[in-house]
Structure formats: structure tokens, C-alpha cells
Amino acid sequence: MKILILGAGQVGSTVAESLAGEANDITIVDTDGEKLRQLQDRLDLRTLTGNAAHPSILEQAGIVDTDIMLAVTQSDEVNMVACKLAATLYNTPTRIARIRATDYLERREVFSTDNFCVDFSICPEQILTEYIVKLIEFPEALQVLEFAGGRVSLVAVRAVEGGPLVGRPLRFLRTDMPQIDTRVAAIFRLDHSINMNGDTVVEAGDEVFFIAATEHIRTVMQELRRMDKPSRRVMIVGGGNIGRRLAKTLEHSYQVKLIEYNKKACASLAADLTNTLVLNGDGTDEKLMQQENVSEVDVFCALTNDDENNIMSALLAKQGGARKVIALINRSAYVGLVQGGKIDIAISPAQVTIGSLLAYVRQGDVAAVHSLRRGAAEALELVAHGDRLSSKVVGRRIEEIDSPKGATIGALVRGEQVIIAHHDTMIEAEDHIIVFVNDKRMVRKVERLFQVSLGFF
Amino acid sequence: MQRALTVIHALGLMLVVFSIAYLMPIVASLVYDDGTLIDFLMAMVWTLSIGLLMWLLTRRYKGELSIRHGYLLVVGMWTAMPAVATLPLLLMLPGLSFTDAYFETMSGMTTTGATVLTGLDNLPPAINVWRHELNWLGGLGIIVLAVAVLPLLGVGGRQLFKAETPGPMKDAALTPRIAETARNLWVVYVAITLICIGALKWAGMNWLDAVCHAFSAMGLGGFSTHDASIGYFNSSLIESVMIMFMLIAVVNFATHFLAWRGKSLAVYRHDAEAVASLGLILISCAGIAVFLWWQSVYPDFWTALRHASFNLVSIATSSGYTSVDYAQWPIFAPLWMMFLTAIAASSGSTGGGIKMIRTLVLFKQAGREFVKLLHPAAINPMKIGGHVVPNNIVFAVLGFIFLYFMSIVTLTFALLISGMDFISAFTAVLASINNCGPGLGTVGPSSNYAGLTDFQTWVCTFAMLIGRLEIFTVLILFTPHFWRR
Q1: Could you tell me the pTM of the whole model?
Q2: pLDDT digits over A121-137, tens only?
Q3: Testing the interface with B: which of A263, A277, A293 to mutate, by most B Cβ within 10 A?
Q4: How far apart are CA A242 and CA A237, in angstroms?
Q5: Of A3, A342, A393, B145, which has the fewest Cβ atoms less than 10 A away?
Q6: Nearest chain A Cα distance for residue B369, angstroms
């Protein structure tokens, strides 16, 4: 597929990196030539220096035969103009723009084909914020991902001594909770996926991925670990885009304290937030933390732009007695380094947000993609089309489907109904199917499995 | 000196325009044929000629006003207009001294509603129309009116507008042009007044009473055509209609304008000041009703609620009508009402006092100090209704409140020196500076200000003026800085 990416920032370069590995033709445009050179050194793609909102630059970048354009520059306005140009001048089929300003997002009509022609808008900060909110809502989980409009969730949780299932085989899951249907999609032990069947014994320290209807996930988690009391106090360090959004989302249901270094930014935050205590200070200042009772904090989030600062302040907070600490870490090398140590959860923004972009780029009808385990695994929500003849999945029982190794069908969503997959579950056309793929190299095969053969048309 | 002449020039023009106001009592005297026509015509001619004379003699000094002369003009108008407005009273009521007449017109224009006249029921209708018209004109503000109808005030108009409009924050730009803003406010004011006249007529008043009471209710003035005030009618329907319109007038007229332009009532919910003042008034009504019932002042709860509501709303909104002699209630109730007078009205409304917005600012400032003590690193801007209040406004409010209390203390001492008892002196000053009207003791609801000595009358007149112009505008003329070149 021919993909044009505008903007080689954090999002642009991560997407480029991820897509270049999947045999796509990628062109990336940015005003900063140096950034592009670095990117080209690592990846097999074409680069172009210039203003992404100028038609001549777009033409040089080969927009004429581009299949998908991703406008992810720093500026909402440039992204919108690029989409408009792509639509009116070059008839680009799919146009995706990163839009951050809620002002635009609240007036969706500006994206229509009569106006700025933005097919899909994504807001990485918003996705990241929702992701963190889930982690605060479920303080025991390592990851909570939603599918099919929130009806189904995939949850990663670390099994801890004291959970009823820990030390027992998986098949007891059903006898322990007869009224709740769930499916364990994968278990990672010492960072490696293990093969499972009903006799697999869950050990303390295992990272268990399970799929269940969203209203059941708390009950399932109780099987794997003792539940903590729900979070009430949240401390956030860093009042950037994410910190601000997070505080705004949380401030009415939690006690939120927000620490920001820049005094001007503090004033603007305090004006914007109604129920948050905004503190001016350094996120790595342990005196300030003590003074603000870090020991009583349920969830501590370090969300500044600086990886090292985030790690340090998360470590300090943990030492000071915060129950759960979350650090935002951009450099993927650091993520593996710190997660599971003193820092409970290390979030890589790129991994969290890239899924929403990948969903549009993937072949077949993909409704959602979530990257797991730092990009090594993936969970997809695919839509089955066609009939028994044209499709390899529709009209078949799950045991009949020739699914690639490492891919697990976890659940189906049929209309409003959530069906947890068992070996004899029949797949029908238009079902949303949630597939867990524990090796990213298998993703292509899974997609192909769900593609309708040409006879369908 | 030249600039002072410019002020006189503008003042003359305003007096000329003010003479139009006599048309209303003239119409009334024609309708009721009460024999006052000639007096009003005389007063009109006098006003017109004084104004024209001032205007013509100084026409060489026509020009833009500076900020400092804006204050001079506002105070000049607010002292000169009540002065000329005494003309009909002096012509028609021969026994009335200038001091008392000036008190009466000042009380009218500042919407205080205190009176030195007795036998209101027997006054010629035109005189009553004149008194109530003063209430009405002073309510939204004569400068606002002048800015609306006199485009020639030019850029300085905004300054004058600010000097007269009550409240600490006056930059709410409803429309790009200040004259347009002023005009819109007056349109809303006139429209609600017309509805009020209709409602009062429907509730059982005759046309004269309906017009007069609508004028004084919308201006939150409190003049009445009867010595017994609203108690004369003894009708709970009339009382409820009055309550409703007093509560409308106690809200910022800019909010009314926005609601009218946006055709939505949601605007009121977002006006933190309106919510606070209406909430406080309504809760107090219920509280005082329960208190009176509990103290067995009235035999049943509904009677208690009726009298508590009307008198409390009337005093709290700084109108000053009475339906019963509430001075006979246990002292808690009337003092609580006097307290509400000081704080309950919204900025930009026709009410007086500190204004609810300043109360909110002070209240939140106290809260900020607490937060600051507990969290020294906290950045905690003051927010009212979701908007940040800049620190300079907070300081201005603190300055205002100091002057307000010092004025009350000083003026109360002035009355005490003159031999008044403490409760009367204190409440007279309070009622005057808050533009409320009746106090307690010798100036209570069952009596009026007629028994005051000339000195005491002047003290109260001065209190009304500084209360209406929110102290700074008047007192600035007494600072050496103002006169320094």
C-alpha cells in the first residue's frame, strides 16, 4: 500500500516505523530535514523536506497515487488543510488527520466532505488519557483495552498469591464463577508466552490476558489477585497536554493533585481545572511530595515530556509510599527496563496510540487494533464479511478455522450481544471478532484469514 | 479650568435632556387634572434654561473628556440632577425645606426610597409620578441613559459608564459599541417595566399605582404612593407580583439582555452572582418564615411565610417597601434583613450595597488563604463562575470594602454626635449607603426620615450618593491626587 505521512514527530515516526516493517511504500514529509535524515538512516522509506500544506510538496511526495494519507504534523490546521487539498486536488481515498483541539472535535461537521474532508480524526493525547483513566479505574490491571464500543475488554493482570485461581489449573475458572464467561487469551511467564490448555496452572507473577464482557472484568480479576480498595487520590506530575486532560477527566470523581514546574503553565492549568489542586514545583522534589502526602496517594502518574524525570519521580513516589505508580516513557528501551520493577506500569505513548492509526491502514475490515507488550503482541477487532463460500471464517465453528499459530479468537460481538468464544461457537457474517495475536509476525496471516475472496464482489 | 468648563458644557447638555423627563408628570397632571400642570411646566422651563445657559456659555470648551473629568461629570450630574429635580416639589409643597426636598430627590434617584414626606396618599398624582420616575431613571443609571441617547459623549462614554455602573468588573462587552450596549440595557429595562405595569394592574392596582410601583420596583427604589407602602393593598397577589419583579431587578441586566438575545434561560444558571444572590434571598425567606413561626409572631406558617417573604425580599433587594411593621419582629429578623441589603444585589442590577460579586470575591479570597496555608506550593487563582478573577480586581474589592466599612463607621459617628440613638443611627446609615430606605428605630418601617435634623438629613443624603456611585467615584474628588496637575 502507498502511504503518505505528513509530520515526522513522535506519532509520525512511530507509525512509519511500524508500517515500514509491513511491506508498505511510505513517504514521509516534514519541515525538519535533520529529523528525516535520521529516520531514513533506520528505515526503508522516502522522505521529503517542506511544508506539508503546500500542494507542490504534496505532489512531489507522490500524493497522486497515494492510498492513505496520514496528516500528523504538530499543527491541527496544517493537518486539516492537507486533508482538504488531498481530497479536492488529488482524490486521495483515505485521509486521516491528527486533531488535538477540542474546539474542532466538538464541531464534527467541520470534518465532513463539504468542509475539511477529514475521514478520520485521531487525538493521541485523548487516547492516552483514556488509557490511563482505565488504569486508575482498575488499579490492579496492567492494561485495559476496550473493543466493540466498550462492550468487551481485554485485560492484562499480574497474578498474585492470594487470588483463588493462583496455583490451580485454568479449567477451575469456570467452576469458580459459573455465571461469568471469560476466556484467557494468553499467559506470559518470565516474559515468554506459554502454551495453554485447561490444565495449565496459573503461577504467581504470571501476566494473564483475559477477555470478558466489560461489566465482568472486575470479578474475573478477583480470581487472579486480591483486590485493593478503589483509588481515590491521584497525583499527577506534568501539566502538559496529557496531564491536563487527565486531570480534567478525573477531577470530579477523584481527589487530584497536579504538580507542574512552569509557573505560567500552572496559572493556565488552575484557570482551566475546577476541582484539581495545582501545585507549582518540581516533580522530583521529594520534600514537595511529602508535604503533599504522597504516602496517601493511590495512583501516581508521572507524565512530563522527560523520560528520566518521569522515571525518577515515579521511583521517588513509590519510595514515598504511593500505592501504584505509572510513568510515561517515550524511549522504548526504557520501557522494558523499568516495567515490573519498582514502577508498576510504564506507558509508551507511541505503542498506546499507534493502534488507532493501524486500524485504518490494515487490510480487511479492522475496527480496532491495540498494541500489547511493547508492540510484540497485538489484539485486533475484525469484522467478518461474506458467507461460507467467500469467507474463510463465516459459517464455521471456531475449531474449524485454520487460525495461525499464536492467534486466539477471544470473543465475538454480534449486535449488542457479547459471546465469549468456545471451540464450538459459530461465526456469522458481520460479527466483530476479537483476536489476540501473541506474535506480531502473525498479524498479516490473521488479516488474510478474514479477507473476503474476490468472488464476493 | 478649561477642562472644568468642558464638564459644565456636558452637564448643561444633560440637564437639557433631563428636562424631557418632566413630560411624564405633565401627562399625569393632564390626565388627573390635579392642578400641578403649571408647576411642572415651570420646572421644565427652569431646568431647560439652566441647562441651555450652561451649555451655550461654555460651548467654546466643547471637547473630549479625560478620565479624571469623567468622574467630575458623573458626580456633578448625580448632585445637580437631584437639585433641579427638587423644583416641582418646592413649587408645590411650600412648607418643604430645600434640605428635605433634596433628600427626597436624592433618595429617589439613588433608588433609596427613603422619604421625608407624609400623607403620600393625598399628594397630587403628578408629584407621585415624578418621585417614582426618579426611582426608575436612577435605577439603571442616568449616565447609562445619557450614553445611550447622546452619542456625542464619544469615547469618554465608556469611562462614564464604568464610573456609574455598580460592580467591580465592568468590561463585559455585550456589544462592540458602548452606546449600543447602553441602549440594549435600556430596552430590556423598559420592556420588563412594561410587563411589570401590566402584571400589577392585573393583580388589582389602579393604573396610577401600577405605573408608580412598577417604576420603583424595577429601580429597586421602594417609593410608594401610600404611607402604608404595599401594606395599603393588603393583597398577597400584589405582594407576589412585586416579589417576582424585585427578584428580576436584583439580577444583572446584562444577564437579562443575554438571556433575551440568546432566547435561553440557561444564561441565568451560568451567572454565579445571580445564582448566589437569588439562592441566598430564597433560603433566607424560608429561614425567617420558620423563625417567625417558631417565635409565634404569626399564628400560622403561611402568614409568617407571606410577611417574611415580602418584607425580606423588599429589604434584601434594597427596595424598601414594607407590608407590616417588621421592626416589631424579634431583632434577629430585621437585622438579618439589613445584612442581606448590604450584600444581596448583583452588580449591574438596580440594587445597592456591596454587591454579591464582591461578597463572592471576598469569600473565595478567604478560602484561598486557607488553601495557601495547607499547600504552600499551590497555584490557586480565584474563579467565579468558571472564570478567573485577576488579582488586581481582588485588591480593588479589598480596597472598596475598607472604604465601605470606614464610611459606615464615620457616618454613624456623625449621626451619633448629632444625638441620635445607636440603632437608629447605625441602621439609617446602613439603609442610606445601601440605597435601601427604611432602617430601624426612629427611621424604622412605621416612621420615616421626616424627624431628622437638617444635619442628619445631609449626612444620609451624602451616604446615599456615595452608596449609589460606589464610594470611589465620589471620594476620588476628595483626594489631593485628583486635583494635582
Answers
A1: 0.80
A2: 888 888 889 889 988 98
A3: A277
A4: 10
A5: A342
A6: 14
